[in-house]
Each structure stands twice: as structure tokens, then as C-alpha cells.
Amino acid sequence: MATLKPFRALRPAPKHAKNVCSLPYDVMNTEEARRMAEGNPHCFLRVTRAEIEFDDSADSHSDEVYRRGGEKLRELIAEGVLVREEKPCYYLYRLVMGTHSQLGIVAVASCREYDEGIVKKHELTRPDKEDDRTRHIGLLGCQTGSVFLTYRAKPSIDALLDAQTRRDADIDFTAEDGIRHTLWFVNDDAAIAAIQAEFAGVPALYVADGHHRSAAASRVARERGGSGEEPWHSFLTVTFPHDQMRILAYNRAVRDLNGRTPEQVLAELERVAHISEAPAAHEPSRKNQVTFYLGGKWRLLTWKDDVAATGDPVGDLDVSILQKRVLEPVLAIGDPRTDTRIAFVGGIRGTGELERLVDGGAFAIAFAMFPTSIDDLMEIADAGGLMPPKSTWFEPKLRDAMACHMIDD
């Protein structure tokens, strides 16, 4: 069974929450992070993307940059912007984006259970990104970003957590992107025991987003060793029921046509799919459809029946079919985890972003995907399968600094 434990969070003083909490480190580039933090000395990107504290020549993966992130973290603590909880607690975290709302629990999960597969994965990690987060955690002595988990929803857990939100929130703000972030501290011993008991009956947790953060936490635990009870044997999580999760598409753009003309690419695509013209900036409306932008036109691609039905949960994903039937054989994208000719574009940016990338000349073709379902994710994880990289884009995004996990007390 899964373990979600209370912990002594490092979290914002309520009056500073809106100023300090930031988007996750990996949803923007350095220049975007610099703009987001401009004029705000408390912005948490100064901890998670500390290269913005240096000039453009700084190596974002240097020890000097990581140490600056640690210094900035300690400054925020010294100034009372971030405060350490006196006792282990749970925290309930609600995100509201438009009409969508989801309520999860902030807690720490077990690195051992992650290693044993009770916390289930569905993606491989990139060594460079895993190295980055491992060094960041080790040099800061703190897990600054949450792993986004899910579980099969249980009405009894829903009712228990909802009951804890029927009081004034401890932190409540709406970020500049319009997403509302609300946090309740659960420090009552009886409520903590009830929550812990309910989650003890959850057979498995699933990594929705944060494979590199969870893998890095596991590496730190192995490197440091100990009895298994030390703080570094747990990792920071926010866990939501599966029926409240919202997945958007994760789109693809390729820099060139692998020496082919647009007409040759279309001919290759017609071997595996039915192609028709599509309205401007069109998104696919169902599984087994992909829209693509090539030569200034949007087209709709519908996989032929013998291509779409493989009988394999991983192979039947649209991102898998696109990789196997188009990206690799036609455009020579052999390993999308490492190939620099492909870029992944979160669905939150819309199909207009795909047009911009191609029309600007940096890319030759872009593909808009239909979102992978949460049921597909859990089915594949249960079977021990691995989804292609960048198969899911979750929205709304958690805010870093809502809660951090100190592993060096």
C-alpha cells in the first residue's frame, strides 16, 4: 500500500505567498524566467532557476549557480518570507483554472516505495535532467519542486479532504495567469491520523508529472544512505484523485523535413493515414486523429484502421503511432528524448504557437495531438509499460514554494 506522510514544510508566510510562489522551473526557458522574476526579489525562480541571478554567460548547471540558489533560499528564510512548520502536517492544495477545480494533498512519499514500484512511473528520464535535479537537491538540502501524483479516486478520501476545506484557507491568492491557489494547513492530530489511515488503503500512486524530480530524490536517498528514516528518504508530492486531473495535449514541432519536399512528406503520410484539409489552427477532436501544419496549411490526419489498432496500450497511443509511423521513418527522429531536431510544445500554448514556430522559419512542420487520457496513463503504468516522452501536459500547474521539503535540518 502507498504511504503519504505529514512533514514539516518550508512554506510561505501567508502575506508573501503570491510574491514568492512561482511556476515550476521546467516550464520556461532562462529568458522567460528572468522576465517573470524581474522587479521581484522574492520570486522563487531565483532559487529554482538561479542562473537568472547571473549574466547571460552563466552555466545554469554549474555549482556556482546551484549554490546561489541555496543562498537565495536561506535569504528568504532569514527574511521571514518562507517559514518552517513547527510540527509535521498535511496541506490541502486547491487549484482553480476557469471552471476546473482540483483538490489534492501535499505530503511526502517514500523513496523506497518509488524504487519498489508502489509509486508507479510511466516515462523514462533524461540523464542530464535527472543529474540537474539531483545536484540541485543535494546542494540546497531541500526539495523545492513537488512531484505531481495521482491515485484512483475514493469517495471516502474525497469526503475527508472536502471536510477540511470548510473553513477559511491559510493561503489564498490568484496568480498573474488567473489561476487561483488555495492552501489549508492540516495540523490537528485527529485529522492527520484520519488522512494517514485513508491513504494507507490506496494500493498505488502514479507519477503524473515530475519523473525527473522523483528519480533525483531516489538517487539522493541512495547516495546518502542511512537507516531509511531520514528526511532524504522521502520526496515532496502533491497528490490528486484521478477524476480531477486535467490533461492537455503535448504537441510536437520538427525543424526540417529530412531532405524531403512538403509533397513527398504528404505522400508518405497518406500511406498510413487519411489526410484532409482542416480549418485554421485546428485541434484534433478525438483519439486516432492528429492535425499538422505544413507549408502554411493545416491538415487533419486520421490513422488508417490497421495502423491505429495494435492491441498494445502503449502502441495505441497517438504519440506512439506518430513516432513509429512518421517521426522516425519519414523525418528521421530516432530518439525524441535526445534529438535536438524535435521540440515539444505544451498544449496550454495552443495551436497558434505551432503556427508561429513554423511560419517563423525555425521549424518546418508541427503536429497537434489529442490529449492522452488519465486512464491510459494508469493502465500503462499498472502493466509496467513506458509511454513515449512528453505524452502528457497537465494543467493547471502547481506553484513551487507552496511547500518545500527540507532534507537537511
Report on the architecture of this protein.
- With 409 residues, the chain is of the alpha+beta class.
- It has 2 domains: 244 residues, no CATH class; 121 residues, Conserved hypothetical protein from pyrococcus furiosus pfu- 392566-001, domain 2 (2-Layer Sandwich).
- Helix content is 31%, strand content 24%.
- The chain is built from 14 helices and 21 strands.
- The strands form 5 sheets. Strands 1, 4, 5, 6, 8, 9, 10, 11 and 12 form a 9-stranded mixed sheet that branches.
- Helix 6 crosses helix 9 and helix 7 packs antiparallel against helix 8.
- The longest helix is centred in the N-terminal third of the chain and has 16 residues.
- The model has no long low-confidence stretch (mean pLDDT 95).
Outline the secondary-structure elements.
Blueprint: E1 4-5, E2 10-12, H1 17-20, H2 30-37, H3 45-48, H4 63-78, E3 82-84, E4 90-97, E5 100-110, H5 111-116, E6 119-120, H6 127-140, E7 142-143, E8 147-151, H7 155-164, E9 171-174, E10 180-186, H8 189-199, E11 205-209, H9 211-224, E12 234-241, E13 247-248, E14 250-254, H10 262-269, E15 273-277, E16 289-294, E17 297-303, H11 305-308, H12 318-327, E18 342-346, H13 350-359, E19 365-369, H14 374-382, E20 393-394, E21 405-406
Parallel strand pairs: 6-11, 8-12
Antiparallel strand pairs: 1-5, 2-3, 4-5, 4-10, 5-12, 7-21, 8-11, 9-10, 13-20, 14-18, 14-19, 15-17, 16-17, 16-19
Helix pairs in contact: 4-6, 6-9, 7-8
